[in-house]
Structure to design on (633 residues):
Protein backbone atom coordinates (compact mmCIF):
# COMPACT_ATOMS: atom_id res chain seq x y z
CA UNK A 1 0.00 0.00 0.00
CA UNK A 2 2.67 2.62 0.82
CA UNK A 3 4.32 1.85 -2.51
CA UNK A 4 1.17 2.67 -4.42
CA UNK A 5 0.64 5.82 -2.44
CA UNK A 6 4.11 7.10 -3.14
CA UNK A 7 3.59 6.59 -6.85
CA UNK A 8 0.39 8.57 -6.74
CA UNK A 9 2.09 11.36 -4.87
CA UNK A 10 4.82 11.45 -7.46
CA UNK A 11 2.25 11.67 -10.25
CA UNK A 12 0.55 14.54 -8.58
CA UNK A 13 3.81 16.43 -8.50
CA UNK A 14 4.11 16.15 -12.23
CA UNK A 15 0.64 17.54 -12.76
CA UNK A 16 1.65 20.41 -10.54
CA UNK A 17 -0.12 23.66 -9.78
CA UNK A 18 0.39 26.33 -7.15
CA UNK A 19 -1.37 24.49 -4.34
CA UNK A 20 0.05 21.07 -5.06
CA UNK A 21 2.75 21.12 -2.38
CA UNK A 22 0.37 22.04 0.39
CA UNK A 23 -2.00 19.39 -0.88
CA UNK A 24 0.71 16.80 -0.81
CA UNK A 25 1.54 17.82 2.73
CA UNK A 26 -2.08 17.52 3.76
CA UNK A 27 -2.34 14.18 2.06
CA UNK A 28 0.78 12.96 3.84
CA UNK A 29 -0.75 14.14 7.07
CA UNK A 30 -3.86 12.14 6.30
CA UNK A 31 -1.76 9.07 5.55
CA UNK A 32 0.28 9.41 8.70
CA UNK A 33 -2.91 9.85 10.69
CA UNK A 34 -4.24 6.72 9.08
CA UNK A 35 -1.33 4.71 10.42
CA UNK A 36 -0.87 6.41 13.74
CA UNK A 37 -4.49 6.30 14.91
CA UNK A 38 -4.62 2.60 15.69
CA UNK A 39 -1.41 2.85 17.64
CA UNK A 40 -2.85 5.70 19.68
CA UNK A 41 -5.83 3.52 20.39
CA UNK A 42 -3.59 0.75 21.58
CA UNK A 43 -1.55 3.03 23.79
CA UNK A 44 -4.63 4.16 25.65
CA UNK A 45 -4.20 2.66 29.08
CA UNK A 46 -6.85 0.30 30.33
CA UNK A 47 -8.98 1.41 33.21
CA UNK A 48 -7.00 1.38 36.41
CA UNK A 49 -7.40 -1.93 38.15
CA UNK A 50 -9.30 -1.83 41.36
CA UNK A 51 -9.10 -5.47 42.22
CA UNK A 52 -10.52 -6.73 45.43
CA UNK A 53 -9.37 -4.47 48.21
CA UNK A 54 -7.82 -6.26 51.11
CA UNK A 55 -10.86 -5.96 53.28
CA UNK A 56 -9.57 -8.90 55.23
CA UNK A 57 -7.56 -6.85 57.70
CA UNK A 58 -10.56 -4.82 58.77
CA UNK A 59 -12.48 -7.84 59.95
CA UNK A 60 -12.05 -9.05 63.48
CA UNK A 61 -10.07 -12.29 63.62
CA UNK A 62 -11.95 -15.36 64.73
CA UNK A 63 -9.36 -16.23 67.36
CA UNK A 64 -6.48 -14.41 68.96
CA UNK A 65 -4.45 -15.09 65.81
CA UNK A 66 -2.70 -12.64 63.55
CA UNK A 67 -4.13 -12.88 60.01
CA UNK A 68 -1.06 -11.19 58.46
CA UNK A 69 1.32 -13.80 59.86
CA UNK A 70 -1.31 -16.35 59.02
CA UNK A 71 -1.25 -15.34 55.39
CA UNK A 72 2.50 -15.89 55.21
CA UNK A 73 2.19 -19.29 56.84
CA UNK A 74 -0.76 -20.17 54.63
CA UNK A 75 1.12 -19.29 51.44
CA UNK A 76 4.21 -21.16 52.55
CA UNK A 77 2.56 -24.32 53.84
CA UNK A 78 -1.04 -24.69 52.73
CA UNK A 79 -1.39 -22.92 49.38
CA UNK A 80 0.12 -25.69 47.30
CA UNK A 81 -2.99 -27.79 48.03
CA UNK A 82 -5.62 -25.41 49.41
CA UNK A 83 -7.21 -22.26 48.13
CA UNK A 84 -9.34 -19.93 50.20
CA UNK A 85 -12.39 -19.88 47.98
CA UNK A 86 -12.11 -22.78 45.61
CA UNK A 87 -11.53 -26.48 45.79
CA UNK A 88 -8.02 -27.50 44.85
CA UNK A 89 -6.17 -30.69 45.78
CA UNK A 90 -7.74 -30.17 49.19
CA UNK A 91 -11.03 -28.45 50.07
CA UNK A 92 -11.41 -24.69 50.26
CA UNK A 93 -10.36 -23.30 53.59
CA UNK A 94 -12.30 -20.10 54.09
CA UNK A 95 -14.30 -20.41 57.28
CA UNK A 96 -12.81 -23.78 58.19
CA UNK A 97 -12.54 -22.68 61.83
CA UNK A 98 -16.34 -22.58 62.08
CA UNK A 99 -16.71 -26.10 60.74
CA UNK A 100 -14.50 -27.87 63.22
CA UNK A 101 -13.49 -27.64 66.82
CA UNK A 102 -10.12 -25.99 67.38
CA UNK A 103 -8.49 -28.87 69.24
CA UNK A 104 -9.67 -31.18 66.47
CA UNK A 105 -8.03 -28.94 63.87
CA UNK A 106 -4.73 -28.89 65.76
CA UNK A 107 -4.70 -32.67 65.81
CA UNK A 108 -5.72 -32.91 62.16
CA UNK A 109 -3.01 -30.53 60.95
CA UNK A 110 -0.33 -32.15 63.08
CA UNK A 111 -1.12 -35.63 61.87
CA UNK A 112 -4.28 -36.32 59.92
CA UNK A 113 -3.53 -39.90 58.89
CA UNK A 114 -3.21 -40.87 62.56
CA UNK A 115 -6.72 -39.54 63.19
CA UNK A 116 -8.15 -41.42 60.22
CA UNK A 117 -6.55 -44.62 61.42
CA UNK A 118 -7.89 -44.14 64.94
CA UNK A 119 -11.37 -43.99 63.43
CA UNK A 120 -12.35 -40.40 64.24
CA UNK A 121 -15.73 -40.14 62.49
CA UNK A 122 -15.30 -36.56 61.30
CA UNK A 123 -11.79 -37.28 60.06
CA UNK A 124 -12.82 -40.37 58.09
CA UNK A 125 -15.73 -38.49 56.56
CA UNK A 126 -13.45 -35.63 55.47
CA UNK A 127 -10.93 -38.07 54.04
CA UNK A 128 -13.57 -39.86 51.98
CA UNK A 129 -15.09 -36.58 50.75
CA UNK A 130 -11.77 -35.45 49.30
CA UNK A 131 -10.78 -38.25 46.95
CA UNK A 132 -8.98 -40.08 49.78
CA UNK A 133 -5.91 -37.92 49.48
CA UNK A 134 -3.85 -37.92 52.64
CA UNK A 135 -2.90 -34.46 53.82
CA UNK A 136 0.76 -33.88 54.56
CA UNK A 137 1.37 -33.76 58.33
CA UNK A 138 2.67 -30.47 59.71
CA UNK A 139 4.11 -31.28 63.16
CA UNK A 140 6.39 -28.24 62.81
CA UNK A 141 3.43 -25.82 63.05
CA UNK A 142 2.83 -24.71 66.62
CA UNK A 143 -0.67 -24.13 67.95
CA UNK A 144 -0.05 -20.39 67.78
CA UNK A 145 0.93 -20.78 64.10
CA UNK A 146 -2.30 -22.63 63.44
CA UNK A 147 -4.25 -19.92 65.24
CA UNK A 148 -2.67 -17.38 62.91
CA UNK A 149 -3.57 -19.43 59.85
CA UNK A 150 -7.13 -19.87 61.10
CA UNK A 151 -7.37 -16.13 61.69
CA UNK A 152 -6.40 -15.65 58.06
CA UNK A 153 -8.89 -18.22 56.74
CA UNK A 154 -11.68 -16.79 58.88
CA UNK A 155 -11.37 -13.34 57.36
CA UNK A 156 -14.45 -12.58 55.25
CA UNK A 157 -14.10 -12.90 51.50
CA UNK A 158 -13.16 -9.61 49.88
CA UNK A 159 -16.07 -8.02 48.06
CA UNK A 160 -15.48 -8.26 44.37
CA UNK A 161 -16.50 -4.96 42.89
CA UNK A 162 -18.47 -5.35 39.74
CA UNK A 163 -16.64 -2.70 37.84
CA UNK A 164 -16.13 -3.06 34.13
CA UNK A 165 -13.30 -5.52 33.71
CA UNK A 166 -10.06 -3.98 34.93
CA UNK A 167 -8.17 -5.45 32.04
CA UNK A 168 -10.70 -4.86 29.30
CA UNK A 169 -9.46 -2.42 26.73
CA UNK A 170 -12.42 -3.11 24.46
CA UNK A 171 -15.20 -5.64 24.41
CA UNK A 172 -13.78 -7.19 21.28
CA UNK A 173 -11.19 -6.46 18.65
CA UNK A 174 -13.83 -6.47 15.91
CA UNK A 175 -15.79 -3.59 17.38
CA UNK A 176 -12.75 -1.42 18.07
CA UNK A 177 -11.48 -1.96 14.55
CA UNK A 178 -14.79 -0.80 13.12
CA UNK A 179 -14.67 2.28 15.31
CA UNK A 180 -11.15 3.07 14.18
CA UNK A 181 -12.10 2.60 10.54
CA UNK A 182 -15.15 4.82 10.98
CA UNK A 183 -13.02 7.50 12.61
CA UNK A 184 -10.54 7.31 9.75
CA UNK A 185 -13.23 7.75 7.13
CA UNK A 186 -14.51 10.73 9.09
CA UNK A 187 -11.03 12.26 9.27
CA UNK A 188 -10.53 11.78 5.54
CA UNK A 189 -13.91 13.31 4.76
CA UNK A 190 -13.10 16.32 6.94
CA UNK A 191 -9.76 16.70 5.17
CA UNK A 192 -11.42 16.68 1.75
CA UNK A 193 -13.94 19.28 2.85
CA UNK A 194 -11.08 21.38 4.24
CA UNK A 195 -9.22 21.18 0.95
CA UNK A 196 -12.26 22.38 -0.96
CA UNK A 197 -12.78 25.22 1.50
CA UNK A 198 -9.13 26.27 1.42
CA UNK A 199 -9.18 26.27 -2.36
CA UNK A 200 -12.32 28.39 -2.42
CA UNK A 201 -10.94 30.85 0.12
CA UNK A 202 -7.70 31.20 -1.80
CA UNK A 203 -9.60 31.95 -4.97
CA UNK A 204 -11.71 34.51 -3.15
CA UNK A 205 -8.59 36.13 -1.69
CA UNK A 206 -7.05 36.17 -5.13
CA UNK A 207 -10.15 37.83 -6.55
CA UNK A 208 -10.26 40.38 -3.74
CA UNK A 209 -6.60 41.33 -4.20
CA UNK A 210 -7.02 41.59 -7.90
CA UNK A 211 -4.61 38.80 -8.65
CA UNK A 212 -5.53 37.48 -12.04
CA UNK A 213 -5.08 33.80 -12.40
CA UNK A 214 -3.68 33.39 -15.89
CA UNK A 215 -6.16 31.67 -18.13
CA UNK A 216 -4.67 28.95 -20.23
CA UNK A 217 -4.96 29.45 -23.92
CA UNK A 218 -6.46 26.48 -25.60
CA UNK A 219 -3.74 24.88 -27.66
CA UNK A 220 -3.07 21.39 -28.83
CA UNK A 221 -4.13 19.00 -26.07
CA UNK A 222 -1.28 17.34 -24.18
CA UNK A 223 -2.55 13.90 -25.01
CA UNK A 224 -2.70 14.54 -28.72
CA UNK A 225 0.83 15.97 -28.67
CA UNK A 226 2.02 12.98 -26.75
CA UNK A 227 0.42 10.50 -29.16
CA UNK A 228 2.13 12.21 -32.05
CA UNK A 229 5.58 11.91 -30.48
CA UNK A 230 6.57 8.35 -31.35
CA UNK A 231 9.74 8.42 -29.26
CA UNK A 232 7.78 9.25 -26.12
CA UNK A 233 5.24 6.53 -26.87
CA UNK A 234 8.03 3.97 -27.33
CA UNK A 235 9.79 4.94 -24.11
CA UNK A 236 6.52 4.84 -22.20
CA UNK A 237 5.71 1.44 -23.64
CA UNK A 238 9.10 0.06 -22.56
CA UNK A 239 8.77 1.58 -19.11
CA UNK A 240 5.29 0.17 -18.73
CA UNK A 241 6.48 -3.26 -19.81
CA UNK A 242 9.37 -3.18 -17.37
CA UNK A 243 7.20 -1.98 -14.54
CA UNK A 244 4.49 -4.54 -15.19
CA UNK A 245 6.97 -7.40 -15.45
CA UNK A 246 8.52 -6.21 -12.17
CA UNK A 247 5.18 -6.35 -10.43
CA UNK A 248 4.20 -9.59 -12.13
CA UNK A 249 7.45 -11.15 -10.94
CA UNK A 250 6.84 -9.92 -7.41
CA UNK A 251 3.33 -11.27 -7.47
CA UNK A 252 4.39 -14.67 -8.79
CA UNK A 253 7.15 -14.92 -6.22
CA UNK A 254 4.77 -14.55 -3.29
CA UNK A 255 2.54 -17.42 -4.40
CA UNK A 256 2.91 -20.21 -1.85
CA UNK A 257 4.53 -17.91 0.71
CA UNK A 258 2.46 -17.68 3.86
CA UNK A 259 4.29 -14.90 5.63
CA UNK A 260 1.99 -13.18 8.15
CA UNK A 261 -0.53 -16.00 7.94
CA UNK A 262 -2.57 -15.59 11.11
CA UNK A 263 -5.46 -18.02 11.31
CA UNK A 264 -8.13 -18.01 14.01
CA UNK A 265 -7.45 -20.85 16.42
CA UNK A 266 -10.16 -22.88 18.17
CA UNK A 267 -8.85 -21.76 21.57
CA UNK A 268 -7.44 -18.26 21.76
CA UNK A 269 -3.91 -18.78 23.05
CA UNK A 270 -1.97 -15.61 23.76
CA UNK A 271 1.78 -16.06 23.43
CA UNK A 272 2.07 -12.53 24.77
CA UNK A 273 0.60 -13.52 28.12
CA UNK A 274 2.32 -16.89 28.45
CA UNK A 275 5.77 -16.32 26.99
CA UNK A 276 5.90 -12.54 27.32
CA UNK A 277 4.26 -11.48 30.59
CA UNK A 278 4.78 -14.72 32.49
CA UNK A 279 8.14 -15.46 30.88
CA UNK A 280 7.57 -19.17 30.34
CA UNK A 281 10.33 -20.61 28.19
CA UNK A 282 9.28 -21.57 24.64
CA UNK A 283 10.67 -25.03 25.24
CA UNK A 284 8.54 -25.60 28.31
CA UNK A 285 5.57 -26.25 26.03
CA UNK A 286 7.35 -26.95 22.74
CA UNK A 287 9.65 -29.42 24.43
CA UNK A 288 10.02 -31.54 21.31
CA UNK A 289 11.94 -28.73 19.60
CA UNK A 290 14.98 -29.68 21.67
CA UNK A 291 15.08 -33.31 20.60
CA UNK A 292 13.01 -33.82 17.49
CA UNK A 293 12.39 -32.78 13.92
CA UNK A 294 9.12 -31.13 14.85
CA UNK A 295 8.66 -28.51 17.53
CA UNK A 296 5.35 -30.18 18.29
CA UNK A 297 1.97 -28.87 19.25
CA UNK A 298 1.91 -29.11 23.04
CA UNK A 299 -0.55 -31.72 24.20
CA UNK A 300 -3.26 -30.54 26.56
CA UNK A 301 -1.69 -32.18 29.60
CA UNK A 302 1.10 -29.60 29.28
CA UNK A 303 -1.53 -26.85 29.50
CA UNK A 304 -3.01 -28.60 32.53
CA UNK A 305 0.36 -28.54 34.32
CA UNK A 306 -0.47 -24.93 35.10
CA UNK A 307 -4.16 -24.58 34.32
CA UNK A 308 -5.19 -27.22 36.81
CA UNK A 309 -4.35 -24.47 39.26
CA UNK A 310 -5.16 -21.41 37.19
CA UNK A 311 -8.86 -21.64 36.39
CA UNK A 312 -9.45 -17.95 35.98
CA UNK A 313 -7.67 -15.21 34.16
CA UNK A 314 -6.41 -12.77 36.76
CA UNK A 315 -4.30 -10.46 34.66
CA UNK A 316 -1.68 -8.14 35.92
CA UNK A 317 -2.25 -4.51 36.73
CA UNK A 318 0.87 -3.48 34.82
CA UNK A 319 -0.13 -5.12 31.58
CA UNK A 320 -2.63 -4.14 28.95
CA UNK A 321 -4.69 -6.93 27.48
CA UNK A 322 -6.51 -7.14 24.18
CA UNK A 323 -9.54 -8.92 25.54
CA UNK A 324 -11.67 -8.89 28.63
CA UNK A 325 -11.13 -11.01 31.70
CA UNK A 326 -14.29 -12.97 30.94
CA UNK A 327 -13.05 -13.73 27.44
CA UNK A 328 -9.76 -15.20 28.67
CA UNK A 329 -11.45 -17.18 31.45
CA UNK A 330 -13.85 -18.52 28.82
CA UNK A 331 -10.89 -19.75 26.79
CA UNK A 332 -9.55 -21.59 29.85
CA UNK A 333 -12.99 -23.18 30.21
CA UNK A 334 -12.73 -24.34 26.58
CA UNK A 335 -9.48 -26.08 27.53
CA UNK A 336 -11.24 -27.79 30.46
CA UNK A 337 -14.00 -29.01 28.16
CA UNK A 338 -11.49 -30.36 25.66
CA UNK A 339 -9.37 -32.14 28.23
CA UNK A 340 -12.35 -33.26 30.32
CA UNK A 341 -11.47 -31.57 33.59
CA UNK A 342 -14.08 -30.94 36.23
CA UNK A 343 -12.94 -28.03 38.38
CA UNK A 344 -15.55 -28.60 41.08
CA UNK A 345 -14.49 -32.15 41.88
CA UNK A 346 -10.87 -31.64 40.75
CA UNK A 347 -11.06 -34.77 38.62
CA UNK A 348 -10.83 -35.74 34.98
CA UNK A 349 -14.19 -36.87 33.66
CA UNK A 350 -12.72 -38.89 30.81
CA UNK A 351 -14.88 -37.07 28.26
CA UNK A 352 -12.43 -35.40 25.91
CA UNK A 353 -12.75 -33.55 22.64
CA UNK A 354 -9.84 -32.91 20.29
CA UNK A 355 -8.82 -29.30 19.75
CA UNK A 356 -8.54 -28.63 16.04
CA UNK A 357 -5.55 -26.30 16.00
CA UNK A 358 -4.83 -24.69 12.65
CA UNK A 359 -1.30 -25.32 11.51
CA UNK A 360 0.57 -22.14 10.64
CA UNK A 361 4.13 -23.13 9.74
CA UNK A 362 4.01 -25.80 7.10
CA UNK A 363 6.97 -26.72 4.96
CA UNK A 364 6.24 -28.70 1.81
CA UNK A 365 7.01 -32.41 1.92
CA UNK A 366 9.95 -32.09 -0.47
CA UNK A 367 12.12 -30.25 2.00
CA UNK A 368 13.73 -31.59 5.15
CA UNK A 369 13.93 -29.43 8.23
CA UNK A 370 14.95 -30.45 11.72
CA UNK A 371 14.25 -28.33 14.78
CA UNK A 372 16.65 -30.10 17.14
CA UNK A 373 19.60 -29.45 14.83
CA UNK A 374 18.88 -25.75 14.92
CA UNK A 375 17.71 -25.41 18.53
CA UNK A 376 20.03 -27.78 20.39
CA UNK A 377 23.12 -28.07 18.18
CA UNK A 378 23.31 -24.64 16.60
CA UNK A 379 21.76 -22.88 19.58
CA UNK A 380 19.60 -20.65 17.39
CA UNK A 381 17.08 -18.60 19.34
CA UNK A 382 13.47 -19.45 18.53
CA UNK A 383 12.89 -15.75 17.80
CA UNK A 384 15.43 -15.76 14.96
CA UNK A 385 12.95 -17.58 12.73
CA UNK A 386 9.64 -17.16 14.52
CA UNK A 387 9.99 -13.50 15.37
CA UNK A 388 9.11 -11.80 18.66
CA UNK A 389 6.46 -14.41 19.49
CA UNK A 390 6.42 -13.25 23.11
CA UNK A 391 4.72 -10.08 21.90
CA UNK A 392 2.14 -11.79 19.67
CA UNK A 393 -1.41 -11.83 21.00
CA UNK A 394 -2.33 -13.96 18.01
CA UNK A 395 0.33 -16.24 16.56
CA UNK A 396 1.40 -15.67 12.98
CA UNK A 397 4.09 -16.77 10.59
CA UNK A 398 6.89 -14.24 10.93
CA UNK A 399 9.37 -15.44 8.32
CA UNK A 400 8.66 -16.25 4.68
CA UNK A 401 10.11 -19.80 5.06
CA UNK A 402 11.28 -19.68 1.46
CA UNK A 403 14.38 -21.42 0.21
CA UNK A 404 16.14 -18.12 -0.39
CA UNK A 405 15.51 -17.23 3.24
CA UNK A 406 16.97 -20.54 4.47
CA UNK A 407 20.02 -20.37 2.26
CA UNK A 408 20.70 -16.75 3.10
CA UNK A 409 20.96 -17.57 6.79
CA UNK A 410 23.17 -20.58 6.05
CA UNK A 411 25.51 -18.30 4.15
CA UNK A 412 25.69 -15.61 6.78
CA UNK A 413 25.69 -17.48 10.07
CA UNK A 414 28.85 -18.89 11.57
CA UNK A 415 28.52 -22.44 12.77
CA UNK A 416 28.82 -22.87 16.52
CA UNK A 417 31.69 -25.35 16.62
CA UNK A 418 33.03 -24.57 20.09
CA UNK A 419 32.44 -27.27 22.62
CA UNK A 420 31.05 -29.65 20.04
CA UNK A 421 33.32 -32.66 19.60
CA UNK A 422 31.58 -33.62 16.38
CA UNK A 423 32.99 -30.56 14.64
CA UNK A 424 36.54 -30.70 15.97
CA UNK A 425 38.07 -32.67 13.11
CA UNK A 426 35.84 -31.33 10.34
CA UNK A 427 36.47 -27.78 11.49
CA UNK A 428 40.24 -28.19 11.44
CA UNK A 429 40.19 -29.61 7.94
CA UNK A 430 37.77 -27.05 6.55
CA UNK A 431 39.59 -24.19 8.25
CA UNK A 432 42.73 -25.32 6.44
CA UNK A 433 40.89 -25.68 3.13
CA UNK A 434 39.20 -22.27 3.22
CA UNK A 435 41.97 -20.56 5.16
CA UNK A 436 39.63 -19.02 7.77
CA UNK A 437 38.64 -19.81 11.31
CA UNK A 438 34.95 -18.97 11.13
CA UNK A 439 32.90 -21.33 9.03
CA UNK A 440 29.38 -20.81 7.81
CA UNK A 441 26.90 -23.62 7.25
CA UNK A 442 27.29 -22.98 3.52
CA UNK A 443 31.04 -23.70 3.77
CA UNK A 444 30.13 -27.08 5.17
CA UNK A 445 27.87 -27.91 2.27
CA UNK A 446 24.59 -26.54 3.53
CA UNK A 447 23.79 -25.04 0.14
CA UNK A 448 23.94 -28.38 -1.64
CA UNK A 449 20.53 -29.41 -2.91
CA UNK A 450 20.76 -32.86 -1.40
CA UNK A 451 21.18 -31.51 2.13
CA UNK A 452 17.52 -30.60 2.35
CA UNK A 453 15.90 -32.12 -0.74
CA UNK A 454 16.18 -35.86 -0.95
CA UNK B 1 -10.07 19.90 -7.91
CA UNK B 2 -8.56 17.16 -10.04
CA UNK B 3 -6.11 16.35 -7.25
CA UNK B 4 -8.99 15.59 -4.93
CA UNK B 5 -10.37 13.08 -7.37
CA UNK B 6 -6.95 11.50 -7.54
CA UNK B 7 -6.70 11.29 -3.79
CA UNK B 8 -10.12 9.70 -3.66
CA UNK B 9 -9.05 7.23 -6.35
CA UNK B 10 -5.82 6.38 -4.49
CA UNK B 11 -7.71 5.78 -1.26
CA UNK B 12 -10.29 3.60 -2.99
CA UNK B 13 -7.69 1.56 -4.84
CA UNK B 14 -5.45 1.02 -1.82
CA UNK B 15 -8.40 0.21 0.43
CA UNK B 16 -9.59 -2.27 -2.18
CA UNK B 17 -6.17 -3.90 -2.41
CA UNK B 18 -5.79 -4.00 1.35
CA UNK B 19 -9.15 -5.63 1.83
CA UNK B 20 -8.28 -8.38 -0.67
CA UNK B 21 -5.33 -9.43 1.51
CA UNK B 22 -6.66 -11.63 4.29
CA UNK B 23 -4.04 -12.93 6.71
CA UNK B 24 -6.52 -15.36 8.19
CA UNK B 25 -6.43 -17.52 5.10
CA UNK B 26 -3.34 -19.27 3.76
CA UNK B 27 -1.95 -18.10 0.46
CA UNK B 28 -2.63 -20.03 -2.74
CA UNK B 29 0.03 -22.46 -3.89
CA UNK B 30 1.57 -23.59 -7.16
CA UNK B 31 1.48 -27.31 -6.49
CA UNK B 32 -0.87 -27.87 -3.57
CA UNK B 33 -0.29 -31.62 -3.53
CA UNK B 34 3.32 -30.92 -2.57
CA UNK B 35 2.05 -29.23 0.58
CA UNK B 36 -1.01 -31.32 1.31
CA UNK B 37 0.39 -34.77 0.84
CA UNK B 38 -1.63 -37.90 0.22
CA UNK B 39 -0.04 -39.55 3.24
CA UNK B 40 -1.43 -38.92 6.69
CA UNK B 41 -0.09 -35.73 8.21
CA UNK B 42 0.82 -35.63 11.88
CA UNK B 43 -2.19 -34.92 14.11
CA UNK B 44 -4.51 -34.71 11.11
CA UNK B 45 -8.07 -35.89 10.91
CA UNK B 46 -8.38 -39.21 9.20
CA UNK B 47 -11.10 -41.77 8.73
CA UNK B 48 -8.56 -44.59 8.74
CA UNK B 49 -9.18 -45.12 12.44
CA UNK B 50 -12.36 -45.42 14.39
CA UNK B 51 -11.83 -42.26 16.42
CA UNK B 52 -11.19 -40.15 13.33
CA UNK B 53 -7.66 -39.14 14.27
CA UNK B 54 -4.32 -39.87 12.66
CA UNK B 55 -2.48 -39.79 15.97
CA UNK B 56 -3.08 -43.02 17.87
CA UNK B 57 -1.92 -44.13 21.27
CA UNK B 58 0.55 -47.02 21.33
CA UNK B 59 -0.90 -50.41 22.16
CA UNK B 60 -1.36 -50.97 25.89
CA UNK B 61 1.79 -52.25 27.52
CA UNK B 62 4.13 -51.27 24.70
CA UNK B 63 7.27 -49.41 25.72
CA UNK B 64 9.74 -47.48 23.64
CA UNK B 65 13.32 -48.53 23.08
CA UNK B 66 15.59 -47.90 26.00
CA UNK B 67 12.67 -47.28 28.33
CA UNK B 68 13.16 -48.54 31.86
CA UNK B 69 9.87 -49.13 33.68
CA UNK B 70 9.46 -47.13 36.86
CA UNK B 71 7.51 -49.43 39.08
CA UNK B 72 6.81 -47.29 42.11
CA UNK B 73 3.11 -46.28 41.95
CA UNK B 74 1.79 -42.74 42.25
CA UNK B 75 0.55 -43.04 45.84
CA UNK B 76 1.61 -41.47 49.14
CA UNK B 77 3.26 -44.79 50.04
CA UNK B 78 5.03 -44.81 46.69
CA UNK B 79 6.32 -41.32 47.38
CA UNK B 80 7.80 -42.44 50.70
CA UNK B 81 9.27 -45.55 49.07
CA UNK B 82 10.88 -43.48 46.28
CA UNK B 83 13.03 -41.60 48.81
CA UNK B 84 15.38 -44.56 49.08
CA UNK B 85 15.99 -44.70 45.30
CA UNK B 86 19.54 -43.97 44.16
CA UNK B 87 20.43 -42.55 40.75
CA UNK B 88 20.41 -45.51 38.34
CA UNK B 89 23.28 -46.23 35.97
CA UNK B 90 21.21 -45.53 32.84
CA UNK B 91 20.82 -41.89 33.89
CA UNK B 92 24.42 -41.39 32.76
CA UNK B 93 27.08 -39.20 34.29
CA UNK B 94 25.84 -35.99 35.93
CA UNK B 95 26.24 -33.11 33.51
CA UNK B 96 25.71 -29.96 35.54
CA UNK B 97 25.49 -27.57 32.58
CA UNK B 98 22.87 -29.68 30.84
CA UNK B 99 20.90 -30.23 34.04
CA UNK B 100 20.93 -26.52 34.79
CA UNK B 101 19.67 -25.74 31.31
CA UNK B 102 16.77 -28.17 31.70
CA UNK B 103 16.02 -26.92 35.20
CA UNK B 104 15.87 -23.36 33.89
CA UNK B 105 13.39 -24.30 31.20
CA UNK B 106 11.09 -26.61 33.12
CA UNK B 107 11.38 -25.85 36.84
CA UNK B 108 12.72 -22.35 37.43
CA UNK B 109 9.54 -20.70 36.16
CA UNK B 110 7.89 -21.69 39.47
CA UNK B 111 10.69 -22.90 41.74
CA UNK B 112 13.08 -20.07 40.95
CA UNK B 113 16.62 -20.22 39.58
CA UNK B 114 17.95 -20.98 43.05
CA UNK B 115 15.20 -23.40 43.99
CA UNK B 116 13.87 -21.02 46.64
CA UNK B 117 10.29 -21.16 45.41
CA UNK B 118 10.46 -17.64 43.99
CA UNK B 119 10.06 -18.24 40.28
CA UNK B 120 8.28 -15.78 38.03
CA UNK B 121 4.92 -17.53 38.25
CA UNK B 122 5.15 -17.59 42.03
CA UNK B 123 6.13 -13.91 42.12
CA UNK B 124 3.18 -13.04 39.90
CA UNK B 125 0.92 -15.01 42.25
CA UNK B 126 -0.19 -17.47 39.61
CA UNK B 127 1.00 -20.22 41.91
CA UNK B 128 1.07 -19.92 45.68
CA UNK B 129 2.91 -22.08 48.13
CA UNK B 130 5.85 -23.08 45.94
CA UNK B 131 8.24 -24.50 48.53
CA UNK B 132 11.92 -23.76 49.07
CA UNK B 133 13.84 -26.98 48.42
CA UNK B 134 15.79 -26.41 51.63
CA UNK B 135 12.59 -26.58 53.68
CA UNK B 136 11.49 -29.94 52.33
CA UNK B 137 12.56 -33.48 53.16
CA UNK B 138 13.51 -34.54 49.66
CA UNK B 139 15.98 -37.00 48.19
CA UNK B 140 17.10 -37.49 44.61
CA UNK B 141 14.71 -40.45 44.36
CA UNK B 142 11.70 -38.50 45.58
CA UNK B 143 12.49 -35.57 43.29
CA UNK B 144 12.48 -37.99 40.35
CA UNK B 145 9.21 -39.45 41.61
CA UNK B 146 7.58 -36.02 41.75
CA UNK B 147 8.92 -35.03 38.31
CA UNK B 148 7.43 -38.20 36.92
CA UNK B 149 4.00 -38.10 38.57
CA UNK B 150 3.61 -34.57 39.82
CA UNK B 151 2.60 -33.69 43.37
CA UNK B 152 -0.27 -31.52 44.62
CA UNK B 153 -0.41 -28.53 42.28
CA UNK B 154 2.62 -29.60 40.27
CA UNK B 155 1.88 -31.60 37.16
CA UNK B 156 3.78 -34.49 35.65
CA UNK B 157 6.74 -33.54 33.49
CA UNK B 158 7.26 -37.04 32.15
CA UNK B 159 6.26 -36.12 28.62
CA UNK B 160 8.59 -33.13 28.43
CA UNK B 161 11.67 -34.78 29.94
CA UNK B 162 13.01 -38.26 29.33
CA UNK B 163 13.88 -40.49 32.27
CA UNK B 164 17.59 -39.74 31.97
CA UNK B 165 16.86 -36.01 31.81
CA UNK B 166 14.64 -36.24 34.89
CA UNK B 167 17.44 -37.91 36.84
CA UNK B 168 19.79 -35.15 35.72
CA UNK B 169 17.36 -32.48 36.88
CA UNK B 170 16.77 -34.34 40.16
CA UNK B 171 20.50 -34.24 40.87
CA UNK B 172 20.59 -30.54 40.10
CA UNK B 173 17.68 -29.98 42.50
CA UNK B 174 19.62 -31.75 45.23
CA UNK B 175 22.65 -29.62 44.38
CA UNK B 176 20.54 -26.47 44.82
CA UNK B 177 19.16 -27.81 48.10
CA UNK B 178 22.71 -28.39 49.32
CA UNK B 179 23.87 -24.85 48.53
Amino acid sequence: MPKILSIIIYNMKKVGNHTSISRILLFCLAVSLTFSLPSFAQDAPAAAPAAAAPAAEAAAPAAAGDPVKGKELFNANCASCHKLDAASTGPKLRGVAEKHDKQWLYKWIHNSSEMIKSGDAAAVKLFNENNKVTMTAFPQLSEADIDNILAYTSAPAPVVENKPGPVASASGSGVSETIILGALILVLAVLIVMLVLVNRTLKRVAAANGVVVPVKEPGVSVWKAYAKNQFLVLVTAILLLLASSYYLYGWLMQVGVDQNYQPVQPIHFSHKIHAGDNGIDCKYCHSAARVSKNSGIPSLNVCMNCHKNIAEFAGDKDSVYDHSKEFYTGEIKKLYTAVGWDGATQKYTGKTAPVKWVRIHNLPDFVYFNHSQHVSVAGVECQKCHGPVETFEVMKQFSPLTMGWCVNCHRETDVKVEGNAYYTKIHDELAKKFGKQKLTAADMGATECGKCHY
Amino acid sequence: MKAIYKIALAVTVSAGLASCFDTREPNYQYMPNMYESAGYETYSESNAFANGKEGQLPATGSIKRGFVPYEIPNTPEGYEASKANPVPAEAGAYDEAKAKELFTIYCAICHGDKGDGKGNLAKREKFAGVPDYKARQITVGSVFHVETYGLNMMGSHANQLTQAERWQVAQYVMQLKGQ
About this structure: The first helix of chain B runs from residue 2 to 20. Helices of chain B lie at 2-20, 32-35, 76-82, 96-106, 108-111, 120-123, 140-149, 163-178. Chain B has eight helices and no strands.
